[in-house]
Design goal:
Blueprint (H helix, E strand, L loop, with lengths): L2 H38 L10 E4 L5 E6 L2 E5 L5 E6 L4 E3 L3
Antiparallel strand pairs: 1-2, 2-3, 3-4, 4-5
Length: 93
């Protein structure tokens, strides 16, 4: 692997890392808003089997389900998942 290939790969990984952090932040913000809304609404509970975060173009960016969290890129391909046990697993390209 030459220096240019290494730089290109590092750039792609850094971009992917930023997207993953952004998606995770958006998901946490959504959960926080849901919890805050629940408190403001007088303790009502919101329940679902799955929560889906969708961007402005209608593309799924994250799915929170029982015991798992999956993050998706701009093309709709799953790029990482977080399962029970707390380990984050990148999805092979």
């Amino acid at each position: 692997m030459d220096t240019q290939d290494f730089d290109d790969r590092l750039t792609r990984l850094e971009r992917q890392n930023r997207r993953l952090r952004g998606g995770l932040f958006a998901l946490l913000a959504l959960v926080g808003l849901a919890l805050t809304g629940s408190v403001i609404a007088g303790g009502q509970r919101i329940e679902a089997q799955q929560f889906r975060v969708v961007d402005a173009q209608g593309r799924t960016r994250a799915i929170l389900g029982p015991g798992s969290l999956a993050l998706y890129d701009d093309t709709g391909k799953r790029v990482a998942s977080l399962g029970e046990g707390g380990a984050m697993y990148p999805v092979a390209k």
